[in-house]
Automatic annotation (TrEMBL):
Domain of life: Eukaryota
Organism: Aspergillus arachidicola
Any Pfam family matching the protein: PSDC
Record protein name field: Phosphatidylserine decarboxylase
Domain L-tryptophan decarboxylase PsiD-like: start-end pairs: 54-190
Length: 290
C-alpha cells in the first residue's frame, strides 16, 4: 500500500495525500499519549482522573450505554488494516476512546500549515482526518449511520467552530515558514489557486503589518474577503441566472475533464453532475428548494 497516493476515502481532495494525513493524525496521537504509562501500541482509554468537555463525555456516554454502538465502536477500529513494517507511516489510532482523546485536543487547536518533505498542506478538516479510516470499515459505516452518533459529532464540531470564531484561534495566522498560513510557501499556494500574480494583500483584505494580518479569528481568515472590484459575479446588464460558488473554490468539472471547456452548462434540476469527485444534482444542492 503506497503512502504517496491520494487518501482513498476522500474524494474531491478534502484531505492531503495519505502520508501527510497519517503524519498529522499519528503526531496528534503521540502528543496526546506522551504521558501515558501504557505502551503506545496498545489501545488507550479516556483518563478517569481528567475532566473532559461535555461534548466529549456525552458522545462517550451515548456509545457506552448502547450495547450495539459500543460493539461497533470497537469493531470499526479492529477492522482497520495494520502494517507491521513501519507503523509511523500508517494510521495508528487504535480505539474509539483514543479518537475522543484526539478530539479533545482538536477542540481548542487552531488549524496550521504542515510542512513535510513530501510537500506543504493544510488540514482544515481534522475530525475528517481522524475518522476516515474507522468510518470506512464495515462496522464504521453502520456506526456513523446512527442519527444520535451524528448529533454528538455535530455538537463536537460546533464547539470547535465556536473556538475558530474567537481571537484564540489566530495562533498560526503568521508568516512562520513551518506552520504559518502566510508563510512564503503557503502564500504562493494561495496565489496559484486564486490565479493571482500580485501581492496577497492586494487580492484579499488583509494587512501584513498588523498582528495576525488583521484577522480577528481563524474563521475570518478562512472566509477572507476579496478587495473591492475583484471577482465580479456578473455584469449589471446580464440576466440574473447565475449560481456561483460562495467561496474561493477550484473549477468544478468532472474528474478527468478540463476547465473551462468541460464546465457543465444548462444543468437541469435532476441532472447528475460532479462536485469534488462526487455526484450531485441541483435539487440536492439546494435541499429541494429549487
Amino acid at each position: 500500500m503506497s503512502t504517496d497516493i491520494p487518501y482513498p476515502f476522500a474524494p474531491g481532495e478534502w484531505l492531503p495525500p495519505l502520508s501527510r494525513v497519517f503524519h498529522y493524525v499519528n503526531t496528534l496521537r503521540d502528543e496526546c499519549l506522551k504521558d501515558s504509562p501504557y505502551p503506545k501500541h496498545e489501545p488507550h482509554s479516556l483518563d478517569p482522573r481528567r475532566k473532559y468537555p461535555k461534548v466529549i463525555t456525552d458522545f462517550k456516554d451515548l456509545v457506552e450505554n448502547d450495547p450495539g454502538l459500543k460493539e461497533l465502536s470497537k469493531k470499526m477500529f479492529d477492522e482497520i488494516p495494520r502494517f507491521d513494517t513501519d507503523q509511523s507511516k500508517f494510521y495508528n489510532v487504535r480505539s474509539f476512546d483514543e479518537a475522543l482523546i484526539i478530539f479533545d485536543a482538536i477542540l481548542f487547536q487552531s488549524p496550521s500549515v504542515m510542512t513535510l518533505d513530501s510537500g506543504i498542506s493544510g488540514i482544515t478538516v481534522p475530525f475528517n482526518a481522524v475518522l476516515n479510516w474507522p468510518a470506512n470499515t464495515p462496522s464504521g459505516n453502520e456506526f456513523f449511520l446512527n442519527k444520535e452518533v451524528n448529533e454528538k459529532i455535530k455538537n463536537i464540531v460546533n464547539q470547535w467552530g465556536a473556538f475558530l470564531q474567537s481571537p484564540a484561534s489566530r495562533e498560526y495566522l503568521n508568516a512562520d515558514s513551518n506552520n504559518g498560513w502566510f508563510s512564503p510557501a503557503y502564500v504562493a499556494k494561495m496565489k496559484q489557486y486564486a490565479q493571482w500574480d500580485g501581492p496577497i494583500e492586494d487580492l484579499y483584505v488583509c494587512d501584513p503589518n498588523r498582528d495576525y494580518w488583521g484577522f480577528g479569528s481563524w474563521d475570518a481568515f478562512f472566509i477572507r474577503r476579496f478587495r473591492p472590484g475583484l471577482r465580479p459575479v456578473r455584469e449589471d446588464d446580464e440576466p440574473d441566472i447565475y449560481i456561483v460558488s460562495p467561496c474561493e473554490a477550484g473549477p468544478q468539472v468532472e474528474e478527468g475533464k478540463q476547465y473551462p471547456k468541460d464546465v457543465r452548462k444548462q444543468v437541469q434540476a435532476r441532472d447528475t453532475f460532479w462536485l469534488k469527485g462526487q455526484p450531485y444534482s441541483i435539487f440536492d444542492m439546494l435541499n429541494y428548494d429549487a
